[in-house]
Each structure stands twice: as C-alpha cells, then as structure tokens.
Write a structure and sequence with these properties.
Helix content is 24%, strand content 35%. It is built from eight helices and 19 strands.
Length: 373
C-alpha cells in the first residue's frame, strides 16, 4: 500500500511538471509568434510595398526586372529600398503597450499613422514548408506605424483588425524606425541624373549663355575615336585625350542633391525663365537625349527673408532644370562641376589657373601652435 502511495505521488508530480512544461512551451511559442508578427524573413519574395499617411501621401514601391520603382513612374533609390527590406527582416516586438497607456496610444495613432502593406509571392500549397506549389502574389501583412515612445527607443505599431498595440524595435539597433516608413515619394526617388558608360554616349554638347566661345560639341566618330568642335565657329579643337576620356567616364554616376518641389510656382517659373548659366545635352547611341540647364543660386536669401538679388552667388550650388521630367533640383558643384568645364579646358597644353589664397583667408586659419608670450 505504501509503495502504491509513493507511485501515485511521483506520477502526480510528473503530470504537474508535464503540464507546466506544456503551458510554458505554448506561452513561449505564442510570444515567439507575436515577436515575428510584423517581420518578413523572406524579403526576396516581396514584390510590392505600399505606404500611405494621414496627409494624403502615398508611395508604391514595386520590384521590376530593372530594379525597384516609385509609383510606377520613377526609379527608387537602391539604398533606401535595401534599408527597408533590412528593417522588415529585423523588425521585432519589444513589448505590448501597457494597459494604462493603451487607449492614449490608439487615440494618437488614429490621428497620426502610416499604413503599411506588404505583398509577396507565396505558394497556394505549402506542405511542411518543404513542398511549395502554385506561387502567386498575395497581400501578406497590413499594419499601421505610429509615433515613437518617450525614450525614443521604440515605435508603436498596430496590426490591421487587431485591438492590441505593440512597441517594436530593430534587433541590434537603438532608436526608432517610424521615419523609415515614409509615404513621401521624394524620399524614395533616385537622385540619379546620368548613369552612362563611356560606350553608351554618342555626343555631348555644352552651351554657355552668351559665351559661344566656351561651348563645344563632342561626337564619337569611331570606336573610342572622337572629334570636338567649337560652338563659336565650328572649328576643330585639338583636345587632350586624357581629359576627354575623364569627361566621358564622369557620366557613370551623377546625382543631384535635393528636390525643390516646395518652391512656390511663381518662384520656380522665375528661375526657369531667367538667363541660364550652362546647358548640357547628352545623346546616347540608342537615341535618348538628356538636357540639363543650370541657373545661379544665391546664398541663403530666403532663409533670412532678404531679396535674393541682394546676395552673392553660391559657389557650391546651382539650380538645375531636368528637361525630361520637367523638374527643378539643386546640384552641387563638387559632383556636377567636372561636367561643366569650357572648351578651353580640353585643349592640349592648357594649364588650369590655381586658386589664390589672400592674406585675410590665411588669418582665419587657426594655428596648431601656441605662442610662448
């Protein structure tokens, strides 16, 4: 009888332990499932990403054979898209929103949020994640990104149709991620102006306003053979081959600095109709033509509420009008200046003038030594 009692006790203890293990495993499985609820591990299967905010902005990122596009019209920045795919892969739930603050969080998210839709290629039949048949595109995730937590180390998120909000973060990243889910198309658009190999280019023409002697046209007349003519009188220019080859290879990756879509229409029209500085025309071998026109930019005139004509020219920036898509942008002389050298620069024997440094500028350079007196 005593042995039976001991056996019953041991059996009862084992049953209790088994129940606890099963409950704990189910609890951990639930938490693990929730932690990955907003995660897309197979980012290669993503075909489209859609973002929309309360201000009416909308962005559709779509994967194509030639890369990602923005709203079916523009090329997307590869870095931005890669960053978003990384974010979706590493996104984790940090914790549920506390009951005490849950209602306030939901109220704020109702007024300020970004809707996120993720589309993927998934199989209609998936047997144990081994046999996958009949792939098709499907809307797999829909959730809303809210604002940041008070400690700036988390972001509120709510799944569509759910009544419980969470705080999410990136695994291994300290900070918030709400700004990554931008619904502004300009945040995603590529800033590329030129992306041509030397073998893509048929001709280059550079015009200077009211200075025909500075202009030239460069034409390919054979395999790696070129002729350069002056726009002033059409005469041939005996050019430096190395400098011309450097010019041709400079079109591989040329980008503008910023969009200027926030400029008032009257101001934009005023700039475009003002006397231009340079006009650059590039024709490719397949007949495509790019025309970029530059205009003078003044230094911080608008920021100080002063008439722009009262300020000096900005030596580092210019306005640029892209003819193909009718857009006004800002360019940097650092990136674009190498394409705007005049015809004289390419002549054999030409020596570029060295910039002079005046005494006043030297006085402004701090010394690394201290005087003993």
């Amino acid at each position: 009888m005593k042995k039976n009692s001991i056996a019953i006790v041991i059996t009862s203890v084992l049953i209790v332990i088994a129940c606890l293990l099963l409950w704990n495993n189910r609890y951990l499985t639930t938490l693990r499932g929730e932690a990955y609820d907003f995660t897309v591990r197979d980012t290669a299967s993503i075909t489209k990403m859609f973002f929309a905010d309360k201000s009416g902005n909308q962005v559709l990122l779509k994967r194509t054979e030639k890369g990602w596009t923005v709203n079916d019209k523009y090329n997307a920045q590869p870095v931005m898209v890669d960053n978003m795919l990384y974010t979706l892969d590493k996104l984790r739930i940090k914790m549920p929103v506390s009951l005490a603050s849950h209602d306030n969080v939901i109220t704020r998210m109702a007024g300020t949020n970004t809707k996120v839709e993720i589309y993927q290629i998934v199989p209609r039949i998936n047997l144990f994640n081994k046999v996958k048949l009949f792939p098709h595109e499907k809307l797999t995730k829909v959730f809303y990104i809210g604002d940041v937590t008070q400690d700036n180390n988390g972001t509120y998120v709510l799944k569509e149709g759910a009544d419980k909000a969470y705080i999410v973060h990136l695994h291994g990243f300290r900070g918030f991620i709400s700004s990554r889910f931008s619904a502004n198309p300009e945040d995603w658009r590529d800033h590329m102006i030129f992306s041509y190999d030397i073998n893509d280019i048929s001709s280059i023409k550079l015009e200077f306003n009211n200075q025909a002697e500075k202009g030239y046209v460069l034409n390919e007349i054979g395999h790696y053979l070129y002729e350069m003519k002056s726009l002033n009188d059409g005469s041939n220019i005996d050019f430096d081959t190395i400098r011309v080859l450097n010019l041709l290879t400079s079109f591989k990756d040329v980008r503008f600095e910023a969009f200027l879509s926030d400029i008032a229409t009257e101001r934009r029209d005023s700039i475009i109709n003002s006397p231009y500085q340079e006009r650059l025309t590039v024709v490719t071998k397949d007949g495509h033509e790019d025309v970029i026109t530059t205009y003078t930019m003044k230094i911080n005139a608008d920021a100080f509420g002063i008439i722009e004509d009262d300020w000096d020219d900005d030596p580092d920036h210019k306005y640029a009008y892209i003819e193909n898509n009718k857009e006004l942008v800002m360019i940097q002389d650092f990136a674009f200046g190498k394409l705007l050298n005049p015809a004289e620069y390419y002549k054999k024997g030409y020596i570029a003038p060295q910039r002079k440094i005046f005494i006043e500028e030297l006085d402004e350079i701090p010394s690394s030594t201290t005087t003993p007196w």
